[in-house]
Amino acid sequence: MPPLSPAPRGLDAAQETSVIRNIARYAHSQAIEADEMEIDQFEFNVTSAEKPHIQNDVVTLHRRAAKDHRVKLAISYALSQSTKLSLYERRVVDTVLETKHLPEQLAATGQVNCLPAV
What we know:
Number of domains: 1
Pfam family, one: DUF155
Domain DUF155: 10-113
Protein name: DUF155 domain-containing protein
Shape: elongated
Helix content: 40-55%
InterPro entries: DUF155, RMD1/Sad1-interacting
Oligomer: single chain
Largest sheet: 3 strands, mixed
Family: Belongs to the RMD1/sif2 family.
Number of strands: 3
């Protein structure tokens, strides 16, 4: 039986630069307003005694998992999706508040007067 090849270690420098440039280009084209930005500060703990978990902005990882870039990427992705969902939730609330007069007007008068945006 031939010897097993070593597990891949991740991206080389050129691949990493390419990925970062693609992400940066997309992030720049999808920029959000300053008042919609959300910044969280997380603390990361590495332990061999506790199970991996996230609680009160503290991410606790097992010593072996902390060495795996895929685990870190998965956590990063989950946090970014949570932040993005929070932004969408705020936008939905704003839209509901901005348009709540429409059903009220329809209930009161039987019609809705919509003027085109200027």
